Prior knowledge:
By secondary structure, chain A is an alpha/beta fold. Helices cover 33% and strands 22% of the residues of chain A.
Amino acid sequence: MAILVDERTRVVVQGATGNQGRFHLAQMLAYGTRVVAGVSPGKGGEEVEGVPVYDTVEQAVLHHAVNASVIFVPAAFAKDAVFEAVHAGLGVVVVITEHIPVHDAMSMLAFARHHNAVVVGPNTFGVISPGKAKLGIMPARAYSPGPVGIVARSGTLSYEIAAALTAAGLGQSTVVGLGGDRVVGLNFVEVLKRFEEDPGTRVVVLVGEIGGTAEEEAAEFTKGMAKPVVAYIAGRSAPPGKRMGHAGAIIERGRGTFDGKVKALESAGVRVAALPWEVPGLVASLLQAGPAPEPEARPPASED
Amino acid sequence: MAILVDERTRVVVQGATGNQGRFHLAQMLAYGTRVVAGVSPGKGGEEVEGVPVYDTVEQAVLHHAVNASVIFVPAAFAKDAVFEAVHAGLGVVVVITEHIPVHDAMSMLAFARHHNAVVVGPNTFGVISPGKAKLGIMPARAYSPGPVGIVARSGTLSYEIAAALTAAGLGQSTVVGLGGDRVVGLNFVEVLKRFEEDPGTRVVVLVGEIGGTAEEEAAEFTKGMAKPVVAYIAGRSAPPGKRMGHAGAIIERGRGTFDGKVKALESAGVRVAALPWEVPGLVASLLQAGPAPEPEARPPASED
Amino acid sequence: MKLFEYMAKEVFARHGIPVPPGRVVASPQEAAQVCSELGEVAIKVQILAGGRGKAGGIRFAASPAEAESLAADLLGREVRGLVVDRLLVEKKLAIDQEFYLAVAVDGAARRPVIIASTQGGVNIEEVPEKLLVKRHVDPAWGLHPYRTRQIGRRLDLEGAVARQFSDILLKLYQVFTGSDAELAEINPLVLQKDGRLVAADGRLNLDDDALYRHPDLPRVAEGSEVERRAQEAGLSYVELDGDIAVMANGAGITMATLDIIQHFGGRPANFLDAGGGAGVEPMAQAIELLLSRSPKALLVNIFGGITRCDDVARAIVKVATARGGLGVPAVVRLVGTNEQEGVSILREHSLEAYSAMAEAAAAVVKAAAGGNGGGADGHPGR
Amino acid sequence: MKLFEYMAKEVFARHGIPVPPGRVVASPQEAAQVCSELGEVAIKVQILAGGRGKAGGIRFAASPAEAESLAADLLGREVRGLVVDRLLVEKKLAIDQEFYLAVAVDGAARRPVIIASTQGGVNIEEVPEKLLVKRHVDPAWGLHPYRTRQIGRRLDLEGAVARQFSDILLKLYQVFTGSDAELAEINPLVLQKDGRLVAADGRLNLDDDALYRHPDLPRVAEGSEVERRAQEAGLSYVELDGDIAVMANGAGITMATLDIIQHFGGRPANFLDAGGGAGVEPMAQAIELLLSRSPKALLVNIFGGITRCDDVARAIVKVATARGGLGVPAVVRLVGTNEQEGVSILREHSLEAYSAMAEAAAAVVKAAAGGNGGGADGHPGR
């Protein structure tokens, strides 16, 4: 089991004929993701890696049973691409594009919420359910299937942690990148909720960072969770007032400090790793202590 | 029983301190309508007919259990008033104001639909459930309680028909004015649906006119109704291309003709009166032939 | 309010929609001048009616002399019942394909609708439904480029033409919302042989109720002299071709009154809705206006709600007094608010009031046909 | 990008928000001139930092001579660590009451939020939550007058003041959306003794990612010289006060790298996120930039996903070759895409690569402290 994406996810890549789009379309296909169509206005009729390209998402949906999108279009056109995907009824829209104007982001996320679509990102590495589907730009070999759910704001840091878990034999159910922008579609709480309900996830790793209050809200939510949570927070050494790359990673007016986040998480019972390489050990100990996994729901046996 | 408004409807009048607002607030109160508040920006603290006036609907809702509004504010401010009422959570918003720009109307109706509020009008005489509540500008004495539901585009014509029914001893459950504008919140079908479900209504009178396709759509809907429908359509003598007062009342490009509407209604089994004064006779004959009314739902008896 | 083609195109051009080079002219000399500047031209009569092409209202001239003579021929002529006083002289287009494109208010859907078709240049009502692409726009979100691309795709547009189309549609939608339009239409939207799209014809119908917020947009007077006076007085008035003048209160009841007159064999001279709650003065003005057209009879049909029957009676008496009699048989039907007072006032001036619509209508038809019809001839105090 | 107060107010004024009469000046003489035109004035240092009032950055002058001497005093001074080169000289206000009003991006709610308070003129973070009025705006529908009235009502505003407030808030929201702002703030919004509201101070923080669509708005350079160069090169770079230069790929991993250096007792000199998938040239530039600040050691920490380890190695070698050695001990940690090629390239130039972050961090801290730390000193070919 997994959350958000799995082997039934049928993907359209928006911006499929650009450099990034082409490269990652190939990578996703190679991973086994069911990439069934590409979209690039004006390029309808072409193919990328044998995948047909259409001018509009509407057409891609008409010809294929698409239910998710990965967006690589340039920032100036990304809002339109998200509107298009949501309007076409896609349930999961992964926005890789970075530097999308924040007003565009607010608008496209509002549109998605009004239409009950989940937007991952923008400025995310994407979502991967190891062994099932990869919708994003993460390096495939960092991951292996297993019972650990990961939710992170940051790409490379989460690759690092996923790779360490994989090296320790601790595979992942799904790894979700929230995105590094100040305004993103999913927050920690929404992903924790899904992991809590996912029979395939037994422990959750939360990779946070300074700035904002998302980790504090997550801490509050974990109090009601049955599944154990391990956290790592980046930015302990960051001075106030300096924005550390990510739009959100800044301690402003005393809010979103490292200490505040760690305190909130620890007092909610979350095990906080002081250093990234401590995460696998904490996860392993919780997996041994935790409840046995629920059996996966199976489709009823065929009668013939 | 009734639809849309009844004795539990608690009304705020927006534009309560203007001439029209004042006059009709008094009339509604006199009829027994529970007008519990008025709203006029800048006039908070005043009273109209003993009813307290607030600056905002938000305040009116805080102080009273308001669930409906009647709007008399000038056309240029009507859209804002509807947004305010809908935002405040009111379920029924009756817009008396005429000459509201059609783009404002589209916007405010979209907002209302997104928030599941019913807008009656704009440019409507309102809604009356005789003996229970009157939200609008209709002359009270034309109505009496009874089993006939009336839905009309036009004010005075429906007063005329209601008065004729009343004179014939045929009272009304509810009388709904859709409004004379090209874009209005409720259409015939939506009101017919409510009358069909209302145990207090046994026969429905539809008062239509040339222009648009609302009557044709209504005709289609009546095919699935258990309750009989009588119709009168104004505009038989109107030449094509001339707009007869109402924004909708025009035969344009061959659409919305009198003959087309009458044909659609008659072939759906609706009895169409050739002249207004024929309506009571048709209604009376259908009431005699129709099924007995369902008993009204009663609250469970108190146990003590 | 409908704008003339040339006005609509000015608004289009301000929003960046390509239109053919050209100018509006009022004389043959100016037409020749424009032709000498632009080469081969189309000369199009500027009237507020469709179908002018079939009616000979569009001509082509290859030389200034030809332009002058064609313009001289067209100016002052009647086309579709309207006198031509303006011509739009435009560079003649090398047409490859013609499309239809419009944004309109869809009353039933309560939202703007985009209508597009590859069948341009003809009356869109005659295009089969399956050749139309219709898309509604949610006012909350507006029109975004992806939808214009979808529509272009449905019209089988590709490459540069698809991009131009998308751009023009976005701008036409801006015209529509920015001008408070009921209809913004390009028909035909022409694909020229050089690959460029251009708005060859344009319509822009504005919402009368929103004109107040568009002082920058031109004003166009429509209808007859009397209709314009009525409009200025805030009355809802439409001229018809019969001889029985009608005033009622409310659009529906007024329409029904006309129907009933016709039912009894009469011919209504007009639609006049005095509105709800009109006072003595506006109603008196309305009656004056009706009488100015010399009808054979007058029917006033009032169901008093907000409108007070005594005010109606006073208005009638006021006009009769001012004119020394109404001059035509008048039938008055008064019911509702202050009915008794109204009836008394009329009686004081020897006018009788009916209470049943049927009787009043029958009476006025009879009066117009020459009989007295039971009503008064409108001379008070006689 | 933050605008100076005077720039923010120019934008406000263009949208119709009342601001005090005044001008920005760069010399004492100009300050005197403005004072002679306006009478009693406030002289305010223009710096991109709050709290300037407490730091003595706002003074009042009653005469041109006083204005000149105060301006002379302020210009060139350091306030809150920033050198003052501009002053805003404005007519002094007769203050009756001070409000706070702002529109900001609320990241958690993913929507714009309006924040208003009767407690203006102070740092809004210090105002108790119960004295703040907060209202979110749905981007689908925008801000409508009724909500501004509600907010005014919550601040107990009445009559003409309530109307002015409503109007100013609508305009401030237009500034916010129309400028792609992250924050549009008026603090204080002053109610003058004459009953008029005026924006006495203004902040406008713009979204860097949206500047491209606002060529009309001014540009303000922030940060140190090196930070500006980094920004122009498209790098995400922040100066810190330690001595170990750091380059990593990804904001989170870079932050974590700083944390780990600190964990081992070292002090990072900077945050530098080379981003995902950077090529040889940008990474070489980034390393050049780091070395230009003469750190004691360099740590390059790469987890290669899109970023290729061989490109990283080539960038390091390129800089070393160009400079005849890196000049400082360099510790490189390479893991991921093309790891083997990267390690080989480094080896060819006698540079060693680590695969564990912990070891690399420990080594660089040791190297910066004077030990060799197991890394190379960066002189290739030795």
